Amino acid sequence: MAGATQIKPDLQFIKRIVAAGGDTAKKCYQCDTCNVVCNLTPDEKPFPRKEMLMAQWGLKDVLKDPDIWLCHQCSDCTVHCPRGAKPGEILGVLRQMCIEKYAFPSILAKMVGDIKFLPVLIAFPVVLFLVWLYGLGLLGITKGLAIPEGPIVFSKLFPTVWGIDAIFVPAFFFAVGVLGLGVLQFWKDLNEANPWKVKLHGNLVGNLVAVLKDILMHNRFRECETTFGRALNHLLLVFGFIFLLLTTTWAFLREWVFHMDSPFSLLLPPDPLKWVALLGTGLLLFGIYRIYLARQENAEKAGYGTYFDWQLIYLIAAVGITGVLSWFFRLLGSATLAYPTYFVHLVMVFCLFFYAPYTKIAHLVYRTTAMLYARMADRGF
Amino acid sequence: MAMEERKYACYLCKGCGIGEVLNFADLAKVATREAKLGLVKEHDCMCSPEALEMIRQDVAEGVNCVLIAACSPRVKFEEFDFPGCIVERLGLRELVAWTQDPENKETQALAEDYLRMYGAKIKKTNLPEPYKFEEELSKTILVIGGGAAGLSAALFAARNNYPVVLVEKEAELGGYGAKLHRATPTSYPYTQMQESPVFAKIKEVQAEANIQVYTNTTVVKTAGQPGFLDVTLNTNGSEETIRAGAVVLAAGWKPYDAAKLADKFGYGASPDIITSLQMEEMAKQGKIVRPSDGKVPESVAFVLCAGQRDPEHLPYCSDICCASSLKQALYVRQANPNATAMVLYRDIRTPGQLELFYKEVQTDPGVMLTKADVTKVAPAPGGKLKVAAKDTLLGDNIELEADLVVLATGMVPATTDEPVLNLEYRQGPGLPDLELFTGFADSNFICFPYETRRTAIYAAGGVRQAMGMAMAMDDGVGAALKAIQAVEHIAVGMAVHPRAWDETFPDPIMQRCTSCKRCTEECPFGAIEEDEKGTPFYKIARCRRCGTCMGACPERIVNFADYSVDIVGSMLKSLEVPTEDDLEDDEEEVPLRILGLVCENDAYPALDAAALNKLKFSPMIRFLPLRCMGSFNLVWVSDAFSRGVDGMLLLGCKYGDDYQCHFAKGSELCNYRLSKLSETLDKLGLEADRVQQVQIAISEFDKLPKIIDDFVARVQEIGPNPFKGM
Hints:
Chain A has helices at about 10-20, 35, 50-55, 65-70, 75-80, 85-100, 105-110, 120-140, 160-190, 205-215, 230-255, 270-300, 305-330, 335-355, 365-375, and one strand at about 5. By secondary structure, chain A is an all-alpha fold. Chains A and B meet through strand 1, helix 1 and helix 3 of A and strand 16 and strand 19 of B. Strand 1 (about 5) of chain A pairs parallel with strand 19 of chain B, so a sheet runs across the interface.
């Protein structure tokens, strides 16, 4: 038959979805309640119903469907689903599969998504740093693995250039590279023949700016009913990250361009950099704390969330808490507490950066891309 | 009861609003002087213990014909029960008090006419004396068919101490239920496949002393009448005749011929396109493989509604195939954990508790479902099969590949091709009107499933309606209950459904019979046969007492103890029909007199319902209940019009393919007779429109006032009966 869509179910894909926490996908019986209840879906070819069907049939093309990213997991659909199929959760799992698909190498992506490999993933930076520090000691740049004596200055253990920059700059570029490759392939797939393909039009940059504005204002989150709290919580978290990014960039510029060395003072005189850092940390911690609480509260109604979801929450929390504790212990003057805590902090930050293309935090590029596509395809905003 | 022994009494009730609408002094005058009912009493509440005691006192003192002029005969029948007396009930409450305007003087005239009518009736009614059969009645239940329904019916009857003869045409009991590998669940929690329940039932039947089992046996002939059935059985060539009282027809079904699905579903184009029965056989043997090369399939497509719900094949749904296909999807998955089972449905139907099974099967990762209108199944390269469908959830036009395609074909009842019962009835060896039900031995009575147009023969299971085993087993019990009721009633000379209280029977005056055999042809139940000389005679046990024969007979020879042409004729002729001489000064028109002959099954209850809702009727019309419109005899038309009546409205149940007539054909026959009548009326100078039949259902009671008003208007238009006053 001409123009017929070929249907090729993939049983392994279904099993993968089930293993990643999407076991309720099969319960859907296509009643359309989720489509009707969703406030974020466009009216034409809405989501999440068709994605549920594609998940049930093991049709991997669903990973090329931008609608899975238009979803913000309000969980209104999960709350109203008469069969307990939890479409919100299922789409979350599909997003995980999508990240897995576009991240290179896929073996690393699969490891990040599987709790079995968590010790290995944490062990990697731990071992890396220990070896690095030892090496620094051998080379005489630092005292190696010993707790440094005297006033607590973290660069005694982790020198700014040979410690921090040498590890984190490559890690950062690695992450950006993998994410970039992934997004380009994603964009290519989005524009390919697709049952829901719509013609794109408009200025790419102009639309991207509009999408970013929408994201920063958290307009999508405001449409949610079940998880309306996130409009604020996620906003706090995002701005926390923005301020911390600002801090890091500013510090980097001070180091490499303006040749100003740390330490920078907090109070006398007040250094704006330190205050922006504090603000960022505060927002991040407050945001992630509220997110944690809200998830617990909503667990019964909206689903608890998968390993993939909680992995990121705990990672961000760990980054924030260890960061604050390091500062705290430093102010307290306890070297035995401060340096190890700082070590852990750096491990956590490394995980956040290096594994960014594979963890849930990759959503910040994929969702933005999908929203850009949807905007240029006139899908609702 | 002979005329001389009769002592009449009329009891006028003033309760429920009757007292406010009528003049009781005038009523009493009519009752005594015109209706000649010796004793007339009134009471404010005739159903109260005091009033009933009063009546009982009168009965003790010799009254034996009691006319209760109070509420409808359909209520308070336990109160107005006086053993040994003739009791007539006149529903003044519904027919007058609740439906008439108290200010209209015609209302009083209406009530008085009713008293005259019922006064005439009570003079001629007799107490029924149940028919006594000469020989001993058999209470053996014959069950034809040893599948789920038949086994269930046999066990139920046997455990209630009725001897059972179970006849099965195959060598083994169990029917299609025994051919299954596994069955869909028939018990809590309804989520798991189970062993087919027939196996346990077969063991129970074999252990039951009251059940005599014949296998490899068919029914050659069913002669006689209910209670006295002589059934000839053929087992492998040798014949034997047994005696039975009633029959449960549980002959089951066979699968639709898949060869007819070659065009659309490709059956026959590839050995890997099979029917669900073929799939079940493979599963039972433990090897689900592709018939072409013996390989285990990796992908199986199930096409539901194959050749069903389709005007070119079977127009109906076979009820169990959705659940059965889901079950087979599980077979495929359990045999090969890497296989996918794709279910393509038009709808998923899960009768009974099977929704729970559907939810369970859905959770299997390898079972996937989509709504789809399958347009083609054909072989594809590589030894595979291609299934094309449109209007699916996955897209407007899809194609998928499968290693094996299973077509869920439908169930065709056993009665489609053969009469099975081989009845010795002049009207034919099978059940009549099977084409109304696409070959199924079904009836139009949702409240009375299992009923057929052959008395004491009750259909159950797949032969009655496409159904699964859970429902078939319940059906068997239902039909067995009806069969038991039939033998018990016939044993005491009582009728069965719908007049399951009636102890009268048709008693024809054979001297005047001309053997025209109109009764024989028209009886909906084939209760009348003809002897060697061609003279009709009754097989009373088959009779449902509808009176269609009474209506058909041109010589009017058929009578029942409390229902005859003469009784109704007397009621019609007892009306007071005012003429021009009766007009008062200020009146211009003679009030019309219209008769309403109303069947007791749907039409009279509709009247009661309308009255309960205080709808108003024209005071011109006098209602008279009939057992069935089939008992309408044309002589009543001349009786009524010669009396001066202006019109006759016949209210009966719906007839036609979707009939609701409780005696299947009565209402239709009345309509047919009326068509013969119009010529005669025209010759007499009476307009055909003066007699009309209207179909009414009990739920349409709200339409009654308009129906009546329209008819009255038409008669007014035509003008009064020219023979009035002659």
